[in-house]
Amino acid sequence: MARAVILGGGESGFGSAVLAKSKGFDTFLSDSGKIAEKYVTKLEEYGICYEQGGHTEELILNADVVIKSPGIPDKAPMVKALREKGVEIISEIEFAGRYTKGKTVCITGSNGKTTTTTLTHRIFVDAGYDVAVGGNIGESFAFTVATADKEWYVLELSSFQLDGCYSFRADTAVLMNITPDHLDRYEYKFQNYIDSKMRVIRNQSSADTFIYCADDPATMQEMAKITPPMQCVAFGKQYIDSDGMIHIEAAGRKMVLDSKQIQIKGLHNYYNVMAAASAALTAGIAAESIEKSVYSFEGVEHRLEKVATINGVEYINDSKATNVDSVWYALESMTKPTIWIAGGTDKGNDYEPLRGFVEQKVKALVCMGVDNKKLVDYFGGIVPVYDTNSLEEAMKACREIATEGDTVLLSPACASFDLFKSYEDRGRKFKAAVLEEENK
User: Fold this and answer.
1) Is 182 part of the annotated catalytic residue set?
2) N or C: which end of the chain has fewer CB within 10 A?
3) 414 vs 408: CA distance, rounded Å
4) Catalytic status, residue 306
């Protein structure tokens, strides 16, 4: 019996363990930290052997295949030891892809992938397709394949997940953009990160489709290097006419959307709509059905999410903006004097692209993090900067600065792990603090 070892006991790891068990592998899951109680209960329910709080080498190094959770870097000692032994190490996406009969729409990019994935899934559901959403959001791809394999999967894929894919092939690949992010995982070399993102088209054939942004320099640089065998569909500003009508063409079919009827505003969201609609057209969904889904879509949590207006001050939660490019789009969409809350765990950020918007639109910068030196040093001579080390201090500073007609925007440009468990935790605590203020 082949042995499958899963490293990491979160959603991805648990799902991979269930799939491995269902396919007859001798299955073992190992997590160096504490496994959440909900996953412990499920592992025991499925009869899967596991350990937490450390890795036992003799139970791991004898694996035939290792499914590694995306959060574990290649430089981790156990990963190095496995590679030295020549053990195959793959991602959950690669593993699940070997067993599904369904077609996949795989969406990646530095920014916009969650909104695009959520909207694409909504369109497929509204059209009556047998579809699941997975990857970085929803139930794990592997768990769904193991328990209720679908005809279609809409998958949000990070660069870390793509790094562990080798034979996996996307029926429809969507690349939103490539801007510097996670460079700490890629030897601080942008090209390494670009190469990781481009793996989304790995193994595609003439029967497949690649949807990409014609306005993204890094993507176009890579497109110039290859002769793609798949069908290529571009989206970008040139497909939006002077009346705000968005023109989309894919799989030989055309449709037009009115930007004035789209509830999620801003150029970045129109890109998201174009990508989702192109994927839906490629899958054969009727234009009328796509239009109805797009016009009713209100966005996703933690992405330019309006929280409340208190004493004439609007509060917006953009906690998912964990890199500079995502903040660029957020500031681009601001129409009022903005008090910008930023900070957290820096990922090798270059803040220069934000300078113009900060000069034009930002009334003050409130830094929120354990170490805000880089933000303070860069923006200190441009706008008033307030250095705070907690959410409570940041909110207090915002209340003192904000006046009627201002917007307080949480758009951190950094990871959340210095003060919070995740960007979701950061966003929800920000919303709770705002609503607490509203109820005073």
Assistant:
1) yes
2) C
3) 17
4) no
- The dihedral through the CA atoms of 165, 166, 167, 171 has a sign that is positive
Estimate to the nearest angstrom the gap between the alpha carbon of 114 and the chain centroid: 5
Q: Specify the 3-state DSSP secondary structure of 117.
A: helix
Domain boundaries, the chain: 3-90, 94-296, 305-438
Find the catalytic residue in 182, 197, 320, 361.
Answer: 182
Catalytic residue among 136, 177, 269, 349: 136
Query: Is 94-296 assigned to CATH 3.40.50.150?
Result: no
Strands of 157-200, DSSP E = 172-175
Residue 180 has pLDDT above 80, yes or no: no
Q: What tens digit of pLDDT does each residue of 348-385 get?
A: 788 999 999 999 999 999 999 999 999 999 999 999 99
Tokens of 349: 């950020």
pTM (predicted TM-score): 0.79
pLDDT of residue 326: 84
Topology of 305-438 in CATH?
A: Protein-Tyrosine Phosphatase; Chain A (3.90.190)
Whether 113 sits among the annotated catalytic residues: the reply is yes
Residues 149, 102 contacting (CB under 8 angstroms): yes
Write down the catalytic residue from 68, 113, 121, 302.
Answer: 113
